[in-house]
């Protein structure tokens, strides 16, 4: 069987595992729906992000406005739909950079060991001693309020966690026969880290990436709720919830729908992570 055929077979096996159990199937479906909303939201949203319909303020959910309208006559469904793009993009980019940086540091630290490993891990322990939200607030207080600042915060908050996970895998495989053979053959450090050891970390990275992604979504929404790192008028779901806190009696839907979007996507990604964990624990189909 060719490499491409083997890759397709493993992909089909992974999809089958994801949809084998109801929980991971639901999580995968929810995640895909929100990804599609992020990709095509600007095309299918019936109204603009801040388009005000002065004659349609405080409208309850209806066929004309699926999620109702707020105090300014803005369509809540359109705002939630358009907000999916930024919150998933921020969380995705921040998580991806944290995975890349954390994996690199974890590989180097775990393989090198000794004093270098101790210094890196103790520095990360200092960062991990602070709650993620507190660390994010401290970082944003010292950075200018911008999209780049939010991404930097995500990278700094989640890189130590990823690095520790990768390091634990490296410690368990760096003395295996194939790694020792690579050293005896005179392979360079980069080849050993990225060609011999890195593939062993893929299962852990897949699960960790999904978990960090869900936590990043919640962190971004929390920052938006606090009004830190994002400026109005923003399509951040957390900021929508914050703006609608005073409308619970007049327009509760303006609060409930963006809050529900946060909860549903976080739960969906976490259920997807459970499916990815099962994939990581399942040996490849020998027929592939």
Protein described:
This protein is mainly alpha-helical and 288 residues long. Helices cover 73% and strands 0% of the residues. The longest helix is centred in the C-terminal third of the chain and has 38 residues, at 189-226. It is elongated.
Percent strand equals under 5%
Q: Give the terminus-to-terminus CA distance.
A: 7 Å
What is the string of helix and strand elements?
Answer: HHHHHHHHHH
Helix content: over 70%
C-alpha Rg (nearest Å): 22 Å
Total beta-strand segments: 0
In short:
This protein is an all-alpha fold and 288 residues long. It has helices at 3-18, 22-44, 76-112, 114-128, 132-142, 147-173, 177-184, 189-226, 237-243, 253-281.
What key attributes describe this structure?
single chain, elongated, mainly alpha, 288 residues, 73% helix, 10 helices
Topology:
Elements lengths: L2 H16 L3 H23 L31 H37 L1 H15 L3 H11 L4 H27 L3 H8 L4 H38 L10 H7 L9 H29 L7
Helix pairs in contact: 1-10, 2-3, 2-10, 3-4, 3-6, 3-8, 4-6, 5-6, 6-8, 8-9, 8-10, 9-10
């Amino acid at each position: 069987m060719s490499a491409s055929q083997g890759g397709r077979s493993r992909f089909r096996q992974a999809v089958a595992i994801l949809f084998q159990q109801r929980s991971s199937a639901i999580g995968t479906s929810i995640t895909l729906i929100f990804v599609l909303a992020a990709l095509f939201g600007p095309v299918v949203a019936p109204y603009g992000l801040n388009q005000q319909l002065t004659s349609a303020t405080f409208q309850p959910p209806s066929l004309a406005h699926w999620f109702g309208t707020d105090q300014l006559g803005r369509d809540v469904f359109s705002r939630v739909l358009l907000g999916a793009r930024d919150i998933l993009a921020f969380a995705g980019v921040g998580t991806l950079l944290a995975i890349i940086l954390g994996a690199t540091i974890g590989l180097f630290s775990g393989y090198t060991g000794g004093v270098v490993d101790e210094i890196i891990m103790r520095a990360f322990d200092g960062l991990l001693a602070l709650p993620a939200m507190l660390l994010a607030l401290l970082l944003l207080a010292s950075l200018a309020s911008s999209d780049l600042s939010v991404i930097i915060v995500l990278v700094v908050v989640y890189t130590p966690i990823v690095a520790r996970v990768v390091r634990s895998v490296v410690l368990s495989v760096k003395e295996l026969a194939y790694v020792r053979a690579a050293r005896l053959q005179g392979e360079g450090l980069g080849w050993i880290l990225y060609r011999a050891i890195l593939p062993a970390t893929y299962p852990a990275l897949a699960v960790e990436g999904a978990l960090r992604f869900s936590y990043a979504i919640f962190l971004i929404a929390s920052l938006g709720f606090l009004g830190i790192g994002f400026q109005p008028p923003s399509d951040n779901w957390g900021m929508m919830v914050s703006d609608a806190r005073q409308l619970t009696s007049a327009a509760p839907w303006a609060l409930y729908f963006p809050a529900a979007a946060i909860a549903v996507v976080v739960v969906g990604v976490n259920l997807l992570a459970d499916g990815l964990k099962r994939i990581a624990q399942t040996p490849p189909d020998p027929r592939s």
